[in-house]
């Protein structure tokens, strides 16, 4: 090769090396700086470059034990655990929780954390992340209409139970609990959201149950691919597009009819307009929000169902398991329900007076829960807690809720079910609000905290009380052979009720309630 050509090649290689160095060196330095900050936080498991992968695999199956180990070893402090693709920082203690509650979303972002973990732009819809008006709908009209629409909720609960659990007074009926509960909760929630007859449509019920699973599975798949490929992966390697098509088939006619009525009357206040989720979302979707209105409303109805059915079904199933494993609890709860319903009827006001039932539901969630972590945030820039702990930008931060709920400093005999723990606490002067299930309680963080505390918790708790009330008034329940509470299924930091567990139901002789 001529000397001149060699010289040009050498220059090209040198320029290429310089170009790569200018790209890589800042990233390497940034990574080293970030790791130095993370290394200052103690690790539960291994922190070695290669050995941490073994600890990440262990977190998949033993997350509950790992979270408890960190919580007990570093009380009121932060610790970190390795995950397959990142480190997660876990905190505890009132001071650090208050720091998260008060943090600006520019520092610790709930939205960005969910975007990363759930891949929301591709699973739950980018418009709902960019413009979160569905949260305002849940917080205001959905919650405020509970009293007005409670009769509909109650009617669907009675009908759904009669259809799904047609038990007789003369014999016991085995019921596969979790899936049956999901069908009942889907019907009940959607009676409130979209009304009859759609809430009872078999395909629509299956869709809302399956979408939760498909969205979680889709997120796991999408996390394995770079951003540039995610739209293609979503379309061909997940079931999310199919779910959206099915939802559109069911909801588009309802939405278009509402829009036609608005145009006909020149107002959104037309005669006999349904008072439901679709109407409330359309009320918020004015101006620029009316663009691509069918997709925007359909995706938000799916999103609200995703949040409502998933958590309520697991909470309700855990409560039924606790009742079946502790039959002595049925009578005091039943007496409270019957006495209050006799005076106030099946109303939202009556639900608020059921302190024992509220306590029972809160205690079952404290004891079993639906996971080990809550209040998850993504640090958008370096964040310093008031105790001096620094979490570098790009790090996921969560609260060790399972550790808190099983802390013997916060709770007497924390590993024992004390059904009326919270109703007894509410009986003390000045404590009646703090210890109710929807209340703000620094030692109970099921619904999160701060500005992102679950806006749907009032609807969820009232629905749960009405559901459990129907079980107690209508049925006797037990486990076959007097079995105990079935162990939940843990996958990473998430926990779900045993999907194979069955509960025995027998219809009670109807009472005056």
Automatic annotation (TrEMBL):
Annotated SUPFAM superfamilies: Cytochrome P450 (SSF48264)
PANTHER family membership: CYTOCHROME P450 (PTHR46206), CYTOCHROME P450 MONOOXYGENASE AN1598-RELATED (PTHR46206:SF6)
Family: Belongs to the cytochrome P450 family.
Keywords, alphabetical: Heme, Iron, Membrane, Metal-binding, Monooxygenase, Oxidoreductase, Transmembrane, Transmembrane helix
Signal sequence range: none
Pfam families: p450 (PF00067)
Protein name (record): Cytochrome P450
Gene3D superfamilies: Cytochrome P450
Requisite cofactors: heme
Membrane-traversing stretches: 6-26
